[in-house]
Design a protein that fits this description.
The structure is a single chain. The termini are far apart. The chain has eleven helices and three strands, in the order H-H-H-H-H-H-H-E-E-H-H-E-H-H. It is mainly alpha-helical. The protein folds into two domains: 2-209, Up-down Bundle (Alpha-lytic protease prodomain-like); 219-302, Alpha-Beta Plaits (2-Layer Sandwich). It has a three-stranded mixed sheet with strand order 1-2-3.
């Protein structure tokens, strides 16, 4: 029953993501056309932001499908790392968009006369985009509490909502006061929202690809938990890395008391260590090499 429920939940997530992707894609095309008609840089900036978010949503959708594929002899950890390469592309897109928008906005601000902006079409396009993003946000909200993948998608659309809101405000300012520089200021605000996210994305990608310890993992704490397990004498060759964000992997050599081997309790010890990693550190894939003390004493010689 729980297996069927899991499949139903995954199908619901995919359906909601697919609809959200359709909404964001339509709004993206609409904003690009609106930017060309109105001359609004902030609309173009928001479209660039949405292009990145569309990539992120697509990655999230692919992740829900790929995650279900089993590992093979060629892909022993499965295909989850594809999400990392998608995030790399997404981060690079964000950097380009933020740089392009920032330069364009600064040029417009330096030019005191500013570029001609048609505030009415700008406001209409931005308002429709705001409503569409709100609809996509409400669509994803119920699933955001049950899946980290869906929560990421929800945050993508939330960022789009803020961007559209900034463009709406800028359009109203231009329409009521004639202050066309509001468009450039809104563009800089959107670029300011994009830049930190690009940095975080690229930082996380580098951390995963370099097989660094995940940011929220404390190796010393893991070591202390293992050492606190009855029968464990020492632990060494500890390695922690991630296949993709949120999927840490752990391996270690554990020196155990001679009585563990003689009493045949190695299986129980392995179960206890694996349960400890899964329960306290959310590590589902852990590998332990159990060693008697005499093996650990000369292991360095075998690694030369």
């Amino acid at each position: 029953m729980s297996h069927n429920h899991s499949h139903a939940t995954s199908a619901t997530h995919r359906n909601r993501l697919a609809i959200a992707i359709g909404i964001v894609a339509c709004v993206l095309v609409f904003e690009v056309a609106g930017s060309w008609i109105s001359g609004s840089l902030s609309l173009l900036a928001d479209a660039g932001h949405m292009l990145s978010d569309l990539t992120g949503l697509t990655i999230a959708l692919v992740a829900t499908i790929v995650a279900a594929r089993p590992a093979t002899d060629r892909q022993t950890f499965g295909y989850r790392r594809a999400e990392v390469f998608g995030a790399l592309i997404n981060g690079l897109i964000l950097v380009v968009v933020a740089g392009f928008v920032s330069v364009g906005a600064i040029v417009r601000l330096v030019n005191s006369s500013g570029a001609e902006v048609q505030s009415v079409p700008m406001l209409i396009v931005a308002a429709i985009s705001l409503v569409a993003n709100l609809g996509a946000l409400l669509l994803l909200r119920p699933t955001a509490q049950h899946s980290i993948n869906m929560r990421g998608a929800y945050l993508e659309v939330l960022g789009d909502l803020f961007g559209s809101f900034a463009v709406v405000v800028a359009a109203i300012v231009i329409l009521t006061t004639g202050f066309v520089q509001a468009d450039a200021i809104a563009s800089l605000l959107i670029a300011a929202m994009i830049a930190p996210r690009a940095f975080v994305l690229l930082r996380d990608v580098i951390r995963v690809l370099s097989e660094s310890v995940p940011a929220d993992t404390d190796v010393a704490e893991i070591r202390a938990h293992i050492m606190g397990t009855p029968g464990v004498v020492a632990v060494h060759d500890v390695h922690v890395w991630a296949i993709t964000s949120g999927s840490p992997v752990f391996s270690a050599h554990v020196v155990v008391a001679a009585g563990v081997f003689s009493s045949g309790k190695t299986g129980a010890l392995l179960d206890e260590l694996s349960k400890c990693l899964a329960t306290h550190f959310d590590v589902e894939h852990s590998t332990f090499q159990l060693e008697p003390a005499e093996h650990a004493e000369h292991e360095d010689e075998l690694h030369r």
